[in-house]
Known about the structure:
61% of the residues lie in helices and 11% in strands. It has 7 helices and 6 strands; from the N terminus they run ββαββββαααααα. The chain starts with 5 loop residues before the first strand and ends in a 13-residue tail after the last helix.
Amino acid sequence: MGIEMIQSLSIKNFQSHKDTSLDFHPGVNVIVGSSDSGKTSVIRALRWLIWNRPNGDDFRSDWGGETSVEVIVDDKSIRRSKDKENLYEIGAVNSQDYKKLKAFGTKIPEQIQGLLNIDDTNLQKQFDSPFLISASPGEVAAYFNQIAHLETIDSSISYVNGKVLNLNASHKADTATLEESQEELKQYDYLQKFEIDLEELEHQASAHIQKISSQKRLRAHLELMESNNVSIQKQEQVLALEKPVDQLLIAYEERDAKKEEKLTLGVILVAIVKMKEDEAVLLKKVKLLPQVKALLKLHQDRKTEWQNMLALKQHLREIRNTKQKQEEWETTVENKENTFHENMPDICPLCGKETT
């Protein structure tokens, strides 16, 4: 079974990812970003889903809530979550009918392994050296042994060797039995020639069987070699894409730099237009300055005259009040004088003089 293409990835409450969704396209997908932006956490989330590593809760986000990682593979949802329960869930996309897998310990449920079919050779860490380029011949051979399933051949050879040992033991036992039988069959000497011919036939049959077995093993080796050649060609195609991908990334960076430069120039142009508008407004205000000063002087003169008029009105009120009080006093004095003359005798009782 081949490796299924991951169509999308959703990460929630895993290290720096609170709620992150990634959609993948067929072929090569590249995740880029600045340092500490969460690129390595994406790989860790996949490892947690695929291999149930790391253990513990150190990867769970500090803000709390359920931690989950979900991938869509071949229109099937595979979800790994941890909160009050620690479980895997499998179901069709947009379906409410999910199969829950629990109590798996540190192992991976066989259903998950069967759907993903991914091992350590399919993921490369951030600081790993370029794939197979800087590896030693032994490491390259170990990798191709793994993808070509040579360990299956080794186990088959071990099984065949065990069978050979059993056959040798049986042969020895049969030989001993044969010797005993020969003693019993000496009376049948005339059958000795027949026995020699029969042994020759058995030897030829055994040699024929061994040749057939060798032919089958050679065919199996040829099929494995063809499979390895196909895998090598695929890897060469991937390596051939490395340079175009690097060029594409450089082009993306240059495009982003041009966009930032364009935005900066746009801001500067807007500022220049605003400055020109402000300059025109200021020029108009400068032209109106003499008229404004004249208006301000007229306003101040009018204010002064108004204040003087108010002061005069106040003085007039005070004069009227004073004149009114003077008239009241004069009337009072005149009344008192009349009363005095009416009540005063012609000769003053105090001084004895005549009153006028």
